[in-house]
């Protein structure tokens, strides 16, 4: 019995020794802090400390601007909006406001809601109390029928020469995008250091994702860079570039009517728009991915160039009609 008693005393002594430092660490404190936190203050502080790119921060601040306007319209003081104030009802009303008052497109509304919810998730991880019913609200993604340029159309643009000097420079940059699959932020800053003349290759670290991609140089690309002696001019801002691309495609004659359908605000708008009006800097990247896909190049090889991490995100770029799909399948051995 004495041995058992001694063992119990030893166990109690050990447990007491463990309990003291645990108490000093305050591990029994609840997950959430005792004090309240204004939601907008939290977001601003988080973004200030964040090492994310400025473009990322601007997107979140744009959402906060909409949130502030929403509160003002509804007579709510933003100082009364805490991290736990934004639940299901708040989010539903915010979504309705973006649609009815701001008349934003559905995918834009989806983006604002997801950024709001992402900050609430961050607030919870930082230890602030949140109302988890915000997770019950969602906006479905609307499939956007963005256009792409076929190889025939790209060739027409490439050989079209009734352009001003500035338009010719824009055209050359745009063709570079169509034949490399790079984003505007990357093909607009190509310089001599990115070209491997011996291997006929372009190597560049992408600005958006930081991934290093290697792209073989198509004949059009080789001809363009040689024309400028590998010193491509720096294009103007993307807004000016997009206007110029539309003007060029209009001159080329890309006037095929395209059915345009979007949810704007609370209504669905359908109308026919000439193809040239729908073409922008990003059409180049989409055209590259689609044309390679139509040439039966394996998806994973295309993704190594475009930098997509998943097939689901990659296939959002592919623009293949049912007729084009049937024409491609017709050549398969199965249908012979």
TrEMBL record:
Tyr recombinase domain residues: 144-330
GO MF, any single term: DNA binding
PROSITE patterns to which the protein is assigned, alphabetical: TYR_RECOMBINASE
GO BP term, example: DNA recombination
Gene3D superfamilies: 1.10.150.130, Intergrase catalytic core
Family: Belongs to the 'phage' integrase family.
Protein name: Tyr recombinase domain-containing protein
Organism encoding this protein: bioreactor metagenome
